[in-house]
């Protein structure tokens, strides 16, 4: 105890005021003047056997003023000393607002019963009385020499705890130690709780450990306080110490310990507690068994949960709900439903909690349609959804984008008065924000009776997502004016929004501001910045911010790694991607399915399909996103049959396809010219899988039919589409018209494109090239004049190759490469060797009205030829060449690359914006279909 109150123990017995360093309004000295108590009659030592008298006999109905009450009090002290009389006096004093007089009666005039103390504090609160006045009365009576027993001191300590009066509590502790006060277990408990609340769990633990022989109650309460403070290791240590001290934990402590074992994944400790439960015969305690079920399921041991449940002789409603929740939370929905059906035939019928377990289980697995079906079914049999049901349903609405259905749920919430639940209110705001109905989100937010930080953050994120940063700032200011301090989520939302919208400097400014206000930027903050840059295509910035993040000592997490892999894939930086792959292995990030999927995607986009497939095959617990990524990978490399084969394999594993799956499969069909297969999978979407085709699926079909030469069928398909064709549809169709030199249909597609995207230069270039291929030079020049009038500029064409982690760019518009002379010299020699093997330049790929000799020279300047040649010069003969190009390869470069792979015996990978071409031994993986 000396360690806690070293200064207080040196003061005299009469306590004096201490400096008010903690709470000036909450600290009272025990040495106060007597004047304030002079007019209050004091009745002391009422015996416990006093007969209570009815209030009517006491004559309180005649009391009209405070003075008459005091007179009646003085009269009654001479006549009677009943506990009932004292309680009536307290009630009347409180009603007249005289808390001090009530406090005097409370402290010296009542039976020493903890129930009476509790009722007094409740009555004090209900009448608006100030507990500080009771503490002041206690100090005055103590200074008059009134000696209080442990029960009074216990209640005073509890009041000190409630009002956070640290100094008075410390003085009382010192007084107890000096007087050698014999503290009962309740006073010790109050002392421990006081230190926990006012000084923290460490001080509470010190008080506990300095008690010579702590009773069972103190062990249990100290363990509970450590659990509340999330001091898991200390709580486990105390629980073990309790066993060695032959103290007994109560059922509540065991339940909370098991909950902690589930929360922190402490399976070993949970099993030990289970052993203790069996040892002391608590296996029949349904609360304990329900906690065991939850503990094992949270540690992914559902079979052990089931064994506990099956061993129970008396399964109550809580037990059934625990086991059903366990199965549902881990994704075993069939087992959960089987148990639900068994429960309906048991004595414990399903209740609203049971239904909520099933709702949340389906939501966790992403079965959002089923969530809404269950939501309806629950209501149809008479269960009224509560706040938990509503939040699950709103989550499904968010994911399915059913804003109208969300409005119906909103109406139900208002009718049932559930909008007072802050979580329901926040979910409604979030639903409107994520369904892009920001006006409704703001309207409801302004009418919310209760708003927490989550509601503010949700609405701010809504403005940020739309790029309305000025509105977000206004809302942020209003939030601070209401006394709600922005938290890390608030700042991270702003960082993410600014970076996604390309405002990198503003995002960095927010990170700097976080440091100023004492909110240290975490890995989430930096990841938001890195991810935003990756999504915006600012890959170089994202890599630089990752370096800066490491310099500031912040370690990456799985989300950071996924964003970095996206960056490497976007830039096709294979070497850097391999480094991050190694980092993922060392840090065990690859066990995360999202990281492993990001690694697969990185290898696909960096031209290494073999490594992508290897990582994919090693990935455990593949999600539909994992399968989609690999199926699209095969499609990107023109391996349509492999895409279909992998799709079939996915179905065999029980994974249900989504819209992205069919986009990937149809992409594989169109890239490989598999027309019949494409029709088959397109038709099966709605008929077999109940998936409505989107614009992406229609685009794939138009591209598939057009590239295969079925232009009339593609045109008919566009005309019969149930949704309006967008620019991607017309662009695909125009590309097919160019491939098959159909000017008439091409002009129709071009006209639509010029209306939809009047400033996109690629549309004009496609049509001009079609005119050039058809020798319609006047039409080509006319289109060029239209571009000039509209101010449409043709984008730069470039290709680049990474050698030794240095990127080498080749572009007709940029500064010439430093080794350009060497590249052209090597390229001339290559072309000479290629011609001996049969290479003939495709001069029709030059869409300029110049002679054939000039066209052949012009073909040599195509950027992909230069990049491939540079790779042949600067890399080892066994190393594949990997080139990235921002536009589609022309047929001449495609033919030249095949001959280059044959002449130099090298593998060449070219990514041309839409797909990969893998050249080897004079052949391409696309089989000349691209």
TrEMBL record:
<dbReference type="InterPro" id="IPR002885">
    <property type="entry name" value="PPR_rpt"/>
</dbReference>
<dbReference type="Pfam" id="PF13041">
    <property type="entry name" value="PPR_2"/>
</dbReference>
<feature type="repeat" description="PPR">
    <location>
        <begin position="522"/>
        <end position="556"/>
    </location>
</feature>
<dbReference type="InterPro" id="IPR032867">
    <property type="entry name" value="DYW_dom"/>
</dbReference>
<protein>
    <submittedName>
        <fullName>Pentatricopeptide repeat-containing protein</fullName>
    </submittedName>
</protein>
<dbReference type="GO" id="GO:0009451">
    <property type="term" value="P:RNA modification"/>
</dbReference>
<feature type="repeat" description="PPR">
    <location>
        <begin position="623"/>
        <end position="657"/>
    </location>
</feature>
<feature type="repeat" description="PPR">
    <location>
        <begin position="487"/>
        <end position="521"/>
    </location>
</feature>
<keyword id="KW-0677">Repeat</keyword>
<feature type="repeat" description="PPR">
    <location>
        <begin position="316"/>
        <end position="350"/>
    </location>
</feature>
<feature type="repeat" description="PPR">
    <location>
        <begin position="452"/>
        <end position="486"/>
    </location>
</feature>
<feature type="repeat" description="PPR">
    <location>
        <begin position="351"/>
        <end position="385"/>
    </location>
</feature>
<dbReference type="InterPro" id="IPR011990">
    <property type="entry name" value="TPR-like_helical_dom_sf"/>
</dbReference>
<dbReference type="InterPro" id="IPR046848">
    <property type="entry name" value="E_motif"/>
</dbReference>
<dbReference type="Pfam" id="PF20431">
    <property type="entry name" value="E_motif"/>
</dbReference>
<dbReference type="GO" id="GO:0008270">
    <property type="term" value="F:zinc ion binding"/>
</dbReference>
<dbReference type="Pfam" id="PF01535">
    <property type="entry name" value="PPR"/>
</dbReference>
<dbReference type="GO" id="GO:0003723">
    <property type="term" value="F:RNA binding"/>
</dbReference>
<dbReference type="Pfam" id="PF14432">
    <property type="entry name" value="DYW_deaminase"/>
</dbReference>
<feature type="repeat" description="PPR">
    <location>
        <begin position="658"/>
        <end position="688"/>
    </location>
</feature>
<dbReference type="InterPro" id="IPR046960">
    <property type="entry name" value="PPR_At4g14850-like_plant"/>
</dbReference>
<comment type="similarity">
    <text>Belongs to the PPR family. PCMP-H subfamily.</text>
</comment>
<feature type="domain" description="DYW">
    <location>
        <begin position="838"/>
        <end position="930"/>
    </location>
</feature>
């Amino acid at each position: 105890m000396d360690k806690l109150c070293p200064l207080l123990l040196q003061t005299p017995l009469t306590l004096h005021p201490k400096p008010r360093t903690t709470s000036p309004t909450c600290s009272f000295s025990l040495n106060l003047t007597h004047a304030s108590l002079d007019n209050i009659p004091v009745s002391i030592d009422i015996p416990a056997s006093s007969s209570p008298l009815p209030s009517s006999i006491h004559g309180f109905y005649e009391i009209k003023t405070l003075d008459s009450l005091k007179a009646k009090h003085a009269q009654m002290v001479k006549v009677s000393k009943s506990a009932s009389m004292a309680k009536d006096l307290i009630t009347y004093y409180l009603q007249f607002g005289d808390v001090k007089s009530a406090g005097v009666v409370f402290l010296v005039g009542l039976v020493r019963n903890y129930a009476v103390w509790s009722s007094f504090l409740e009555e004090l609160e209900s009448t608006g009385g100030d507990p500080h006045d009771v503490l002041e009365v206690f100090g005055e009576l103590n200074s008059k020499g009134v000696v209080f027993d442990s029960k009074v001191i216990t209640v005073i300590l509890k009041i000190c705890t409630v009002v956070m009066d640290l100094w008075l509590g410390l003085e009382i502790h010192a007084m107890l130690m000096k007087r050698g006060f014999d503290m009962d277990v309740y006073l010790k408990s109050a002392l421990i709780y006081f230190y926990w609340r006012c000084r923290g769990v460490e001080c509470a633990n010190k008080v506990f450990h300095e008690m010579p022989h702590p009773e069972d109650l103190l062990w249990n309460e100290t363990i509970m306080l450590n659990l509340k403070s999330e001091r898991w290791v200390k709580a486990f240590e105390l629980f073990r110490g309790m066993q060695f001290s032959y103290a007994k934990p109560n059922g509540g402590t065991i339940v909370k310990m098991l909950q902690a074992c589930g929360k922190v994944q402490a399976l070993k400790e949970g099993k030990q507690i289970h052993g203790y439960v069996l040892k002391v015969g608590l296996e029949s305690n349904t609360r304990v068994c329900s906690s065991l079920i939850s503990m094992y399921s949270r540690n992914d041991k559902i079979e052990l949960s089931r064994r506990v449940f099956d061993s129970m002789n008396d399964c109550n409603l809580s037990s059934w709900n625990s086991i059903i929740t366990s199965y549902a939370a881990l994704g075993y929905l069939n087992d959960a439903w089987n148990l639900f059906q068994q429960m309906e035939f048991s004595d414990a019928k399903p209740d609203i909690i049971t239904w909520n377990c099933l709702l949340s289980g389906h939501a966790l697995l992403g079965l959002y349609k089923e969530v809404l079906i269950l939501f309806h079914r629950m209501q149809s049999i008479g269960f009224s959804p509560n706040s938990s049901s509503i939040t699950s349903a709103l989550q499904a609405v968010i994911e399915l984008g059913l804003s109208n259905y969300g409005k119906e749920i909103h109406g139900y919430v208002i009718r049932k008065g559930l909008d007072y639940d802050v979580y329901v209110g926040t979910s409604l705001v979030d639903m409107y924000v994520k369904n892009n109905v920001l006006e409704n989100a703001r309207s409801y937010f302004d009418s919310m009776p209760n708003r927490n930080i989550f509601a503010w953050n949700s609405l701010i994120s809504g403005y940020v997502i739309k790029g309305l940063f000025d509105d977000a700032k206004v809302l942020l200011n209003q939030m601070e004016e209401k006394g709600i301090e922005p938290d890390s989520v608030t700042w991270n939302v702003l960082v993410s929004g600014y970076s996604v919208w390309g405002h990198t400097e503003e995002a960095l400014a927010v990170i700097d501001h976080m440091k100023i206000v004492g909110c240290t930027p975490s890995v989430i903050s930096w990841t938001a910045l890195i991810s935003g840059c990756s999504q915006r295509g600012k890959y170089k910035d994202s890599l630089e911010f990752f370096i800066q993040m490491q310099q500031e000592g912040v370690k990456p997490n799985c989300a950071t790694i996924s964003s970095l892999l996206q960056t490497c894939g976007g830039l096709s930086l294979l070497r850097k991607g391999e480094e991050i792959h190694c980092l993922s292995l060392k840090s065990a990030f690859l066990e995360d399915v999202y990281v492993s999927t990001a690694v697969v995607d990185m290898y696909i986009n960096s031209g290494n399909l073999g490594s992508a497939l290897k990582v994919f095959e090693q990935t455990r617990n593949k999600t539909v996103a994992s399968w989609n990524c690999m199926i699209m990978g095969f499609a990107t490399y023109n391996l349509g049959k492999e895409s279909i084969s992998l799709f079939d394999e996915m179905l065999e594993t029980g994974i249900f396809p989504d819209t992205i799956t069919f986009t990937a499969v149809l992409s594989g069909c169109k890239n490989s010219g598999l027309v019949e297969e494409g029709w088959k999978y397109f038709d099966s979407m709605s008929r077999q899988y109940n998936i409505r085709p989107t614009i992406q699926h229609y685009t794939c079909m138009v591209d598939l039919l057009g590239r295969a030469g079925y232009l009339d069928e593609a045109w008919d398909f566009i005309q019969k589409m149930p949704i309006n064709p967008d620019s991607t549809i017309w662009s695909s169709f125009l590309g097919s018209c160019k491939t098959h030199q159909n000017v008439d249909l091409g002009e129709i597609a071009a006209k639509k494109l010029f209306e939809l995207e009047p400033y996109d230069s690629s549309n004009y270039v496609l049509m001009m090239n079609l005119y050039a291929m058809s020798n319609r030079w006047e039409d080509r020049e006319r289109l060029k004049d239209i571009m000039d009038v509209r101010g449409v500029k043709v984008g730069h064409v470039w290709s680049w190759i990474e050698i030794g982690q240095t990127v080498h760019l080749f572009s007709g518009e940029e500064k010439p490469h430093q080794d350009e002379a060497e590249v052209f010299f090597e390229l001339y020699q290559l072309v000479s060797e290629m011609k001996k093997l049969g290479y003939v330049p495709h001069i029709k790929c030059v869409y300029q009205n110049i002679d054939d000799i000039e066209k052949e020279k012009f073909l040599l300047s195509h950027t992909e030829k230069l990049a491939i040649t540079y790779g042949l010069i600067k890399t080892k003969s066994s190393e594949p060449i990997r080139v990235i190009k921002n536009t589609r390869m022309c047929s001449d470069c495609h033919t030249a690359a095949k001959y280059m792979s044959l002449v130099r015996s090298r593998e060449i990978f070219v990514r041309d914006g839409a797909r990969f071409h893998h050249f080897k031994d004079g052949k391409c993986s696309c089989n000349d279909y691209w």
